[in-house]
Amino acid sequence: MWLEYFEQYLDRVFPRFLSEKPWNYKDDLCMVGAEDLYCATGSESWREPVRRNASFLMDDAGRVANWVPGEHNIDKVSFGKSMRILRDVTGEARWAEGVERAYRILADYPRTVTGNFWHKDIYPDQVWLDGLYMGMPFYAACLTENGEDNWDDILDQFTSAHKLLWDEQLGLYRHANDCSRKMEWADPVTGQSPVVWLRAEGWFLMALADTYEIAKDRTPRAGELCPLLKNALDRLLPYQVADTGMFLQVVDRADLTGNYSETSGSAMVAYALMKGARLGMLPPEYGEKGSRVLDGIRDTYLKKGEQGWELHGICASAGLGPGPDNRTDRTGTPEYYLSEKQMVDNQHGAAACMMAVSEQLRRA
Questions:
Q1: Has this prediction a pTM greater than 0.90?
Q2: One biological process GO term for this chain (predicted)?
């Protein structure tokens, strides 16, 4: 069922999205998902969509879609993940150069007073959980490939992000922190945003697992990521929804009308549980917990439509502050997160499920 859906998705749905909007980080997630399926199955068929859609990211002249010279945007650093995959799949020099260009963006990337990369130029002095996934695994892979020893910077940023975003009373991570305390959504004392958004938690959990995989044989400090992952999951699992086995869009507010089991974040949790168990970050039984979350997504939201399989229950997008569209509704309240549209087959959900299914296949 899952593999049939992914074949259909990568053949028809993903290219359609790419033709409609410029390349974005959620497209990188699809490339990573396809590569993970290749690694889990050994079938070259999963790499065909990677080759086929490369021109949407970079043209033959080396122009990268949606890159703006001088812009600092951690989401766009994430393009380097796709470029690394394409470098390894095609052997073409332009993709190797693209990886280096993405890495060079980090060389003078602005930081908050805590030493963390800030999220974007339009979100100065802000640390979002999303950004840890966009930047840290890519940064770690570049250190490895270049033989550089800057692991303390990566581990320090994880440690700092935990301090900035962890809510001990809830046992959950808030979506973002404004270190300047200027944004209306920021708590004047802590700087934290008010809501625990599931996909933000998912981004962070995946960042921990993916970075550990790269760093574990290269720095003794990689072990610091293991208790962060286990503690986060131990505190998150009690919020699991009984009837779906998933987690809610606003994780800790089951009392809210309209709150729903959300696909992308739940798939990210499933991925982190299974990968963390496979890597030895978590006890082996956590892998089974992750597999059950993924099965809950399948049973709840993978549905057969007139054109084939469809994946439902995916939050299309969410953020804080006006953003590039000067929106006035992104206030950070629970009601805001529930007002964002759900989108069938959205890349966040489909790709996160590819990644989680890849981990499930490795368990077989």
A1: yes
A2: carbohydrate metabolic process
